[in-house]
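Each field is set out as follows.
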Amino acid sequence: MRALVKAAAEPGLRFEDVPIPEVGPEDVLIRVLRTGICGTDLHIEEWDGWGQDHVSPPLVVGHEFMGEIAALGSNVRELSEGDLVSGEGHLVCGRCRNCMAGRRVLCPNTRSVGVTRDGAFAEYVAIPAGNVWRHHAGIDLDVAAIFDPFGNAVHTALAFPVLGEDIVITGAGPIGIMAALVCRHAGARHVVITDVSEYRLELARKLGVTLAAVASDAALPEAMASLGMREGFDVGLEMSGAPSALSQMVASMSHGGRIALLGLPSKPFSIDWSQVITNMLTLKGIYGREMFETWYWMSVFVQSGVDISPVVTHRFDASEFEEAFAVVRSAECGKVVLDWGER
């Protein structure tokens, strides 16, 4: 089968012919139809410090995907060939304290599809049946392909109650914009988003945020003034990993405000902890998706009218992956999807 492979410990990816994955008794073989390109894939393609620390070539990359079930392991019962599915890319151990207590998102022994085991930038991918999410009939294939990052958005947006609250989101990438859509659907009053990319800010405006502003020290105070807010934001969603973004967010929160942090900083940095303490702020780290409550909520949101399809701004045939990666790297895009073949 064709697969996009990190073949050696050096920059770049290339197409290779590799064997179709074997299917164990508890596994499912999925014929891949669409994949999304993630920032993680950029790290691996560029072979930066993160990629070198986490990946051992050769490896088939990619973890955002959807497809149809092509074969079932002998012990798999509740899925069928032809089902449209995506997959939870975090494979947990099942035996640690958190797994045994049902807190699989907190498993310290997690392995990752497309990072520590072969992934989905290929014609076929095999994963455990317990990691398969079956989609409802009629779902848009591009939407199904980005359920993984949509899950990050939902997990972050629902970390704290947002009904009637004023929300600030720093980082208007695809996950930040999808989180904004979830917050509006869940009843937030104002949703303000900041970024350094005017392209992404304009996309956020088209999708209905209350206000989208270029990130700066003055952006959030000016946003509050224009909206008549007097006591700061109730909930903050930090999606950028930029030190300045978190500092600006902390300074703009209401007393007792709550912050969910998804963006990964590239290095340690300091914040004003006196503001966190005296304003009694709550900070919560977010990673991946809760298994599988977040997946349930994703399907519910799509079925109840949350349309994330406009977040997909570019589509390429899988053979055009170099051009697709260049578009993602430019940040002049929303989500970029690769097409691996029709159903």
Summary: The chain has a mean pLDDT of 97. The radius of gyration is 20 Å.
